[in-house]
Amino acid sequence: MERDLCMTMAMLCCAVPLAPIFHVDPLLVLAIIAVASGLNARAVSPRQAQRLMLLIPETAQRFQIRDVFNEEQNLRGGMAYLRCLLSYFKGNVTLVTAAYNAGEKAINRYGRVPPYPETCDYVKKISSLYHQTLHPYQRDLLSVTSPIAAK
User: Fold this and answer.
1) Bridge-partner residues for 50, per DSSP?
2) Measured distance CA(56)–CA(50) in Å, rounded
3) Does the pTM of the predicted model rise above 0.85?
4) Which of 70, 105, 97 is nearest to 81 (CA)?
5) Beta-carbon neighbour count of residue 137 at 10 Å?
6) According to the model, what pLDDT value does residue 22 have?
7) At 50, is the secondary structure helix, strand, or coil?
8) What is the C-alpha separation between 128 and 110, in angstroms, rounded?
9) CA distances from 50 to 21, 111, 114 (A)
10) What is the mean predicted confidence (pLDDT) over 42-46?
11) CB 148, CB 109: distance < 8 Å
């Protein structure tokens, strides 16, 4: 138990200085970590999402993360994904957090937060920890943005 707590604290300490490299507010990263994995550095979801940032294998591969169990790689992969989602959804934190949980295709399909109970609960928990509704984003990061982001 004590070893797990030490490992989680070390990963959180690593997350804060990494966040600005990815142009992501460290408080948003910490909120995602708190809700996604419950601050459990050894978390594995039913969909095989792993570690603090709960990266699913497809997302890890998309962002060229070779070892999701490597603390820094896991954090970098999650933050790279957040950076892309922020750009894709033009800084709309509600859509970004919903997409982090359900995937950007689900957001585009419904034109809003999808009516999945897990995703609605996830977004609600994130918004209780992170009170910003808009987040700065890199306008030139992606060539395509979500058609619903401007709404």
Assistant:
1) 44, 55
2) 6
3) yes
4) 97
5) 23
6) 95
7) strand
8) 23
9) 22, 28, 23
10) 74
11) no
Q: Taking Cα atoms as reference points, which of 75, 46, 43 lies closest to residue 59?
A: 75
DSSP-based three-state secondary structure for 70 = coil
SS3 labels along 20-44: HHHCCCHHHHHHHHHHHCCCCCCCE
30 pLDDT above the threshold of 80:
yes
Q: Helices 117-129 and 26-36, interaxial angle, to 10°?
A: 140
- Please measure the distance between the N-terminal and C-terminal CA atoms of the chain and give it in whole angstroms: 46
Between the alpha carbon of residue 113 and those of residues 16, 144, 146, the distances in Å are 27, 19, 13
Query: In this structure, are residues 59 and 83 in contact, taking their beta carbons and an 8 Å threshold?
Result: no
Query: What are the residues whose beta carbons fall under 8 Å from the beta carbon of 124, sequence distance 6 or more?
Result: none
* Cβ 88 vs Cβ 127: under 8 Å: no
Encoded tokens for 128: 């209780």
34: closest CA among 11, 56, 18?
A: 11
DSSP, collapsed to helix, strand or coil, labels residue 44 as strand
